[in-house]
Specification:
By secondary structure, the protein is mainly α. The protein has one domain.
């Protein structure tokens, strides 16, 4: 397959993957609604940083190790599930009553960049997906590392565009969505979603 066709095919597949509702979409929507667009953007950047970490891991061989090692896969899987469950339980049991926007001189209330990054970095499904998916779009004889990072960069760019669209969609409703009952409902709903994803991840198989 010619290089141009490879890139177009990957872009189409990555677009469909990006638009499929999942944990990343839930995190960005919830953060944009409750924390504001800046925090949501930090979460989106963290999510895509996690993709870049997996891209580096795949490019330099760690992804292949996880693909063949049951121990490595299970270790990362259970760490990721525990992290998601911890986030979910906190949101369910301690939903906030109000949101006070941080001033420019104040530090963010939560490190959403780190949370977004860990959410992807601790999900072995992302690594397995990259290991099994990316090689199909790397032309034979082309250098593995540059092509891997190039394809992951396309995925990251699509993810950022989608996140910006999600963030923009919440702005017109920000007044309603920041009410006390709505904030609590969003926290609890997102917490439940996170726990469902944690259970799904913990029970997942190769």
């Amino acid at each position: 397959m010619p290089i141009t066709d490879n890139l177009l095919a990957f872009t189409l597949a990555a677009t469909l993957l990006t638009l499929t509702p999942g944990l990343d979409t839930a995190l960005v929507l919830r953060t944009a609604t409750v924390e504001g667009k800046r925090q949501a953007l930090r979460a989106a950047l963290g999510i895509n940083a996690g993709c870049l970490l997996w891209g580096a891991a795949v490019a330099f061989g760690l992804g292949a190790l996880i693909a063949v090692s049951e121990l490595a896969f299970n270790l990362l899987k259970y760490c990721g599930a525990a992290y998601l469950a911890w986030l979910g339980i906190n949101m369910l049991l301690r939903p906030r009553r109000a949101f006070v926007p941080a001033r420019a001189s104040e530090k963010p209330q939560a490190n959403w960049f780190l949370k977004g990054m860990l959410g992807n970095a601790l999900n072995p499904k992302v690594g397995i997906f990259y290991v099994s998916f990316l090689p199909q779009f790397i032309p034979q004889g082309e250098p593995l590392v540059p092509w891997t990072f190039g394809l992951v960069s396309i995925h990251v760019m699509l993810g950022l565009i989608w996140a910006l669209l999600l963030i923009g969609a919440t702005r017109s409703l920000s007044g309603v969505l920041r009410r006390e009952k709505v904030i609590q409902w969003m926290d609890r709903t997102t917490g439940l979603v996170f726990m469902l994803f944690a259970a799904r991840l913990a029970l997942s198989k190769r």
